[in-house]
Amino acid sequence: GIGTKIGIDATAPTPRPWEFQRLDLQQVDLDKYDIEE
User: Fold this and answer.
1) Contact predicate 20/12, CB 8 Å
2) Which pick of 16, 17, 32, 34 has the fewest CB atoms within 10 Å?
């Protein structure tokens, strides 16, 4: 059971303007927040 998935955004124009550029997400330390289960 090995599988692979891929997602394609067919709505983005080419060449991609800055609105469609991928962003890097920041790391978040969840220990700093009071999270209730």
Assistant:
1) yes
2) 34
Cis peptide before 17 (omega within 30 of 0): no
CA distance 2 to 19: 34
Q: How many CA atoms lie within 13 A of 30 on its CB side?
A: 2
- Tell me how far the alpha carbon of residue 34 is from its chain's centroid: 24
pLDDT above 90 covers a percentage of the chain that reads: 5
Classify 25 in phi/psi space as left (phi over 0), alpha (psi -120 to 50) or beta.
beta
Its pTM stands at 0.28
Tokens of 19: 């609105």
